[in-house]
Amino acid sequence: MKAVVMRDFGGAEVLQIGERPEPVSRPGWVTVWLHAAALNWHDVLVRQGRYGSPLPHTPGADGAGVRTDTGEAVVILPSLFWGDRSDAPGPEFDILGDHLPGTYAEAVSVPEECAAAKPAGYSWAEAAALPLVGVTAYRALVTRAGLQAGESLLIIGAGGGVATMAIALASAIGAQVFVTGSSEAKLARARATGAVDGVLHTADDWPERAKAAAPGGRGFDVVLDPVGLWDRSVRTLRPGGRLVVLGANVAEQAPMDIRAFYFGQYSLLGTTMGGPADFQGLLELVEGGAVSPPVIAEALPLDQARRAHELLEAGAHIGKIVLTD
After folding, report:
1. Enoyl reductase (ER) domain location, by residue (predicted)?
2. 124-146 pLDDT, tens per residue?
């Protein structure tokens, strides 16, 4: 079958189209013939060798297609071997495309629990773009932060896949959503997709301006930080607010004012991609009809994976970049 094959770690140029054997049937696993695969920043880290993937390797966590055994249209949960506890993944946890062949291919093999019915009304590209950012945003906002209708949420960094999905989920829950962004165009797009308002985070005083924009000017109930700016994000919280963090692509270390943190009665919640229970909760919310499909920034054929990664790393897009058949 046709697949993107990495024979070395490095820049986008290592993503070359090639051939791989088709998945072999085995008990408890299903083969999915893919119609679309969505990109995530995690794929860039895999490509760079951050997760020690075996070479040659086919990356890709997100996908949607047809089960070869039943003919059912499905979306793929990238969380493999989550384990028995809902509060954190077990020791065998892995992400599709890290150590097992991923979705940048014509077909992929996954545990049966990781194949769920494709949401009604979603295109193949939208379905492929849903799982990783969807289950990540759902776990962050619902499972970990406990976001409720009527609460206020600030999302740091409008434009990325997690941020755009978080806007959709939080709006469906009934929260008031605010964002920060690097350009007026990204803020305008966020408003068009459900955000109440936003501020540019290009100035040093953006935390103070964001806090002032919160309802009542006291700060936000919940702040979602998918980029690693904890020391600034925490300054936008109301007393007793919750900061939920899940990424570090902007900063991997954050100096914190410890006294200000505990006097503020803040909660700091770490999270990652969710598991099967989170995925089920996400799909139930989606099937309720209140969640807008993921925004698709660009759809490219599989043999343009290199170009797709270049677009992803440039960071000028709003929404998800998808590879299609």
Report:
1. 10-323
2. 999 999 999 999 999 999 999 99
Taking every pair of C-alpha atoms in the chain, what is the biggest distance, in angstroms? Answer: 59
Average pLDDT, integer, range 204-229: 94
- Dig out the tokens for 166 from the structure: 């978080």
CATH numbers and ranges of domains, the chain: 2-130+293-324 (3.90.180.10), 137-270 (3.90.180.10)
- The 8-class DSSP code of residue 22 comes to P
Q: CA separation (Å) from 14 to 7, 49, 120, 241, 300?
A: 7, 11, 36, 43, 17
CB 39 within 8 A of CB 300: no
What is the distance between the alpha carbons of residues 126 and 211, in angstroms, rounded to a whole number? 33
As separate numbers, helices (DSSP H) first and strands (DSSP E) second, the chain gives 10, 17
Q: Note the pTM of the prediction, 2 decimals.
A: 0.91
In degrees and rounded to multiples of 5, residue 250 shows phi and psi of -95, -45
Q: Give residues with Cβ within 8 angstroms of 196, minimum separation 6.
A: 176, 177, 178
